Hints:
The chain contains 14 helices and ten strands. It has helices spanning about 15-25, 60-65, 85-95, 105-110, 125-135, 155-170, 175-185, 210-220, 230-235, 240-250, 255-270, 275-285, 290-300, 305-310, and strands at about 1-5, 35-40, 45-50, 55, 70, 100, 120, 140, 145, 150-155. Helix 1 (about 15-25) runs parallel beside helix 6, helix 3 (about 85-95) crosses helix 4 and helix 6 runs antiparallel to helix 7 (about 175-185).
Amino acid sequence: MHTVAVLALDGVIGFDLTTPLEVFGRTRLPDGRVPYRVRVCAPAPEVDAGAFALRAPWGLEALAEADTIIVPGVADPSAPVPAEVLDALRRAAAAGTRIASICAGAFVLAETGLLDGLRATTHWVAAAFLAARHPAVEVDPDVLYVDNGQILTAAGAAAGLDLCLHMIRLDHGSAVAADAARLSVMALEREGGQAQFIVHEQPPTPRGSLLEPVLQWMEDNAGRELTLDDIAAHAGMSTRTLNRRFREQTGTTPLQWLHRARIRQAQHLLETTTHPVDRIAAQVGFGSPTAFRDRFKRVAGTSPHAYRRAFR
C-alpha cells in the first residue's frame, strides 16, 4: 500500500490540508481495494491551524516511511520553517520519495533547496514573492501545477485537487483517477499547463503621480479605440515623455496598460452577461474580434469562451 504523508505546520491552511486527505483517502481500485494509506504528521503533537488546533497522530519520522509527501500551504509564507522539518524533507528527497506542495507550501520546499533550478508554481498572489525570495527557482505563476517527476508544485487550493488527481492517474491510471474525480465532484481534465485564469492587477502608481488622472481617464475610456497619440494629447505630453514616465512608474507601456484594462473589463462582461464574444470585443474597445481573442488568450491564458464556461 502506498503511504501518503501530509505535513502539517503551524499556520497550515485548512483546505490545503484536507484536500489530499479526502482525495487519496477516498480513492478505490476497481476491485474495491484501498490503494493509499494517508497520515498527518507534524513536528509537534499539536498544530496551530488558525481557526482550530490540530492534533497530528504522527511525527516527522513518518516522512521517512512515506512514498509521497504533501506539503500544504501556510498562511504566512515568510514564517521560518523548523530546521528539523527541512532536514526531514531533504532526507526524504534523497531517498527518492515523491514530494508535492500545494499553494504556499512551495515556500517550504524552496527553503530546503529542493526547488533550486526547477520550474515551480504557487498561488499567483504569492508568485512574485517566491521568485524574489528564492531566485534559484524558476517560478511560473500562470499554470495550475508543475510536475518535475519527483518534485511537484500546485498553484492553489483547487489546483491542489488537480495535482492529487494527476498523481493518482500516474499511480493507477485514468479510470481510477476519474472515479476519484467524480467522488470530489470535479472534472478530471484540468491539465497542469492550464492557466490560472488570472489577469494580474496593474502595477501600482505612486500616490500623487502625474499619471494618476491619465490612468483614470484611460480606464474610463478603455472602450474607445485610443491611440498612443490620443493618450499623450490628453496627458499634455509628447509620446516619448509619456512612454518614459509609464515605464518608470508602472513598468509597462501605455498601450500595454490599456490592453490589460480592457481585458479586465471583458472578464467582467464574460462572467456577468450573455453578450456574444464579438459584441464584448467591441464594447471593450477592440476593433477586431480576432485581435480581441488573441489578446485575451495572451493575457488571461485561455480563450474568452473557455473563460466564460469556467466562471459564468
